[in-house]
Amino acid sequence: MRDSLVSAAPEAVAGDTMANWPAGVVSAASVGGSLYGIPNEIDVYALNYNKRLFEEAGIAEPPKTWDEFLAAAEKLTDASKGQQGFGLINSWAAGVLHPFASLLVSNGGDLIVDGKPVLDSQAAKETFELYEKLITSGFSDPAMATADANTTGPFLDNFVSGKTGMIIMANWWESALKAGMGDAFADIATAPIPVGPSGDTARSISYSWMTVVNAQAAPEEQEAAWKFLSWLNGPDSGENGASAMGDILMSMGILPSRTSDVATFGDRLSSDPFLLGYTETLSDAKPFPVVLGGQEFSESLQQTLEALQFGQVTAADAQANAQADATEILERNAK
Amino acid sequence: MTGRQTRSTIGMLAPATGLIAIFVLVPMVLTIGLSFTQWSTQTGFETASFVGLANFADLLGPTSIGRDFRAAFGNTAIYTALSVALILPLSVMLGLLVHQTFAPGGILLRTVLFSTYMVPMIAVALVWSKLYSPTEGPINQMLGWVGIPPQTWLSSPRTALVSIVILNVWQQVGYFTVLAVAGLTQIPRSLYEAALVDGASAWMQFWRITLPLLRNTLLFSAVIAVINAVQVFEPVALITQGGPVNSTNVMTYHIRRVGIERAQGGLGSAMAVTLMLSLIVVIVLLFTLLRDRGEQR
């Protein structure tokens, strides 16, 4: 957009998209009021937990509030078995940021509002403090949290091998869990993100993908591209009123975002117990903010959160650093 | 030289120098030029706007740009210094072991040592990331057999960079051993025979004959080791992605992150130019240091 790489959608496409997709998804695909593509895949975050470990620790229900969450984390932590209550993630920007942001929005907070960082809020303060508490109490072990470039690594291994009681991850990792756990995958259940003291309901951040059209292409090429994309994502290309894109996504176990697709595939989505924790929060999900300099913002916050994980900074310092760095980065990139 | 000779000389040199010019000199000049601009890597060069020394000022400034750059620079310096400090002595030690004729197996050892160098770094990195695994990793299990508690390796900001150095040394030491052996074969046997007649111990022979006469080999090895170490990229990109807490964020990885992922081409170029200048300084220092000692003797 900044570099004029993708073209704004024609009015008809924009109107159709606004009518047929949830407002949050449309807003994530728009900049300054203009739509820049047709959304398809959507990913949200949920609490994943190991039912076997919950049973062993005598916990009946997945935690609904942060208090319950901390109590469960404490019961699940057993240093003698090398077992941690809650699995944090590090060395992977999305793995660090998205669970944090999901806890933050479940506590009534936000990362960015109207292009400005709001990490100085009370809700953010409580979220940083939650992380600090997880670390200082030993409920989360940063040495078990590392990811590698394939978005696998110890954080996944520890959850798969039953050494991590709970973790917050996106729906797409279902296949990684199935592959890693085999029959033991039946032990895994999902639940909405626990609600923090300043939050009103369980929320998650969502991020969605979209197909865009090259702004450098010839006008007739652009026109043809929009026509094709409208068909691909429209109600006539798939079966029973679904879009062809919806069919493709469902065949890969990925959540579609078009409202009519979600309705058409409703039975299939609700019959998958793993996806249940995710689909429940879909309507309350807040899109991960799209801003100029977003990548730099994410990496900077990642670094601050990792410093907090490894006890290099206190929650108060982490919050102050995160807000100061984010302010500088977003102001510079907005120029 | 006649005009015809000059022409044929130019003609014969052109294929090689032309390729160097196109693939080395042009990108270098381009990078230097871009380092004074603000430019998105996702667009053509025509969108670059001249900003003078602003990029370099940012690298030295107080914002996260400067902080992250200096941290990456520091990580690269530590990585390079540790790698060279471990590889050079090890290569001489192993070289002596391979070169000696008192015990059999020298050639076998040389082959074994060199074989690690033939494994692609991508494979080495992926295998070592499993070896280093904190819970069920083979290295920690083996340490457990001799009563050493499990180490954090790549999972802690305190140990991650050193773990990558160890992996690098393991892979490279065979190559430098071969260089050391080549240097050792250059030393005339007669010097050792004379030293024996004079009653010099093996220890004295090493310090007075072997090491001084290996000077040129060591200089060459040091320069190559420094350049190799500064280029470190694969293990970081494949295993740690610069983490945890940016503890393994080295220059090459950081430049790619800024210049390609964030598309800040001007800033990335300024970082690349700074890295190149620093590398030149280090290499020149190495040459002066090792040469001066030679003249003093």
Describe this structure in words.
The complex is a heterodimer of chains A (335) and B (297). By secondary structure, chain A is α+β, with helices and mostly antiparallel strands. Chain A has a domain at 44-204 and 293-334: Periplasmic binding protein-like II (D-Maltodextrin-Binding Protein, domain 2). Chain A contains 15 helices and ten strands. Chain A has helices at 11-20, 23-28, 51-56, 66-76, 93-105, 122-136, 154-160, 174-181, 219-232, 244-251, 259-264, 266-271, 273-279, 294-309, 315-334, and strands at residues 30-31, 34-35, 38-50, 84-87, 112-113, 116-117, 164-170, 188-191, 205-211, 286-287. In chain A, the strands form three sheets. In chain A, strands 3, 4, 7, 8, 9 and 10 form a six-stranded mixed beta sheet that branches. A two-stranded antiparallel sheet of chain A has the order 1-2. A two-stranded antiparallel ribbon of chain A has the order 5-6. The relative contact order of chain A is 0.19. With 297 residues, chain B is mainly α. Chain B has a single domain, classed as MetI-like (MetI-like fold, Orthogonal Bundle). Chain B has helices spanning 3-34, 54-60, 64-99, 106-118, 121-131, 138-145, 160-186, 189-197, 202-213, 215-230, 234-240, 251-261, 265-296, and strands at residues 37-38, 49-50. Chain B has a two-stranded antiparallel sheet. In chain B, helix 4 (106-118) packs across helix 7 (160-186) and helix 7 (160-186) runs antiparallel to helix 10. The model of chain B has no long low-confidence stretch (mean pLDDT 90). Classes of the chains: A alpha+beta (335), B mainly alpha (297). At the A-B interface, helix 7, helix 14 and helix 15 of A face helix 11 of B.
Helix-strand layout with pairing:
The complex is a heterodimer of chains A (335) and B (297).
Chain A: H1 11-20, H2 23-28, E1 30-31, E2 34-35, E3 38-50, H3 51-56, H4 66-76, E4 84-87, H5 93-105, E5 112-113, E6 116-117, H6 122-136, H7 154-160, E7 164-170, H8 174-181, E8 188-191, E9 205-211, H9 219-232, H10 244-251, H11 259-264, H12 266-271, H13 273-279, E10 286-287, H14 294-309, H15 315-334
Helix pairs in contact in A: 5-6, 5-14, 6-15, 14-15
Chain B: H1 3-34, E1 37-38, E2 49-50, H2 54-60, H3 64-99, H4 106-118, H5 121-131, H6 138-145, H7 160-186, H8 189-197, H9 202-213, H10 215-230, H11 234-240, H12 251-261, H13 265-296
